Amino acid sequence: MAVTEAGSTHLLGTAFEKVFKSHFKSLHSYAYTIVKDDMAAEEMVQNVFCKIWERKGQLDIETSLTAYLYRAVYNESLNYIKHQKVKMAYQAHATYQMNQQHTETASKKILLGDLEQNLRKAMSELPEQCRTIFQMSRFEELKYQEIANKLGISIKTVENQMGKALKLLRSKLVDFLPLLLIILTNL
């Protein structure tokens, strides 16, 4: 009497179910001793049985079925632990990167605040006309000719006063120049 494929699948399914029911609890307990998590242990055992079912026609067990199942659960559990370690390392790295970016941003804000404060102080020490011309040029973005027209002075005076202002500011802010370059290149 020939067994049809549907019949052999049914017989295989019945045998599979019997093995699953008879070994599940002990395999679950064994997996729990390795992964220390009830849900993960259950998942390990289910993964092993799913892999067995998927390879039901190609599976060749040379040892006892029980030994094979325990070894498969052991390997599955170790793979799970390795995967958890990789996830934890990635999370730690991502957290570190976020903290670094936050620290860098906070440091930049502090340094920019210091720079701004020192710039204001240095500008307050400029002669009045020199400061006015510098502010009109750099903050109002006026051209030298427009500044000369507004203040009723020659363009040459504007150029001289700007040169004087830049020279004085450079000397007052010399400690901040490397910092300013770093900040401006990272923006």
Walk me through this protein's architecture:
The chain is an all-alpha fold and 187 residues long. It contains seven helices and no strands. The protein has helices at 5-35, 38-54, 65-124, 128-138, 144-151, 155-172, 177-186. The model is unreliable at 1-8 (pLDDT under 50).
Seen as an oligomer or otherwise, the chain set is: single chain
Global outline: rod-shaped
Helical percentage:
over 70%
> Could you tell me the mean pLDDT?
82
Uncertain stretches of 5 or more adjacent residues: 1-8
Helices and strands, in order, run as HHHHHHH
Spatial separation of the terminal alpha carbons: 81 Å
Tally of separate helices: 7
Major sheet summary line: none
Q: Give the tally of β-strands.
A: 0
User: What structural class should be given to the helix and strand makeup?
Assistant: mainly alpha
Radius of gyration: 38 Å
Strand composition percent = under 5%
What are the main properties of this structure?
187 residues; disordered N terminus; mainly alpha
Quick structural summary:
The protein has 187 residues and is mostly helical. The protein has helices spanning 5-35, 38-54, 65-124, 128-138, 144-151, 155-172, 177-186.
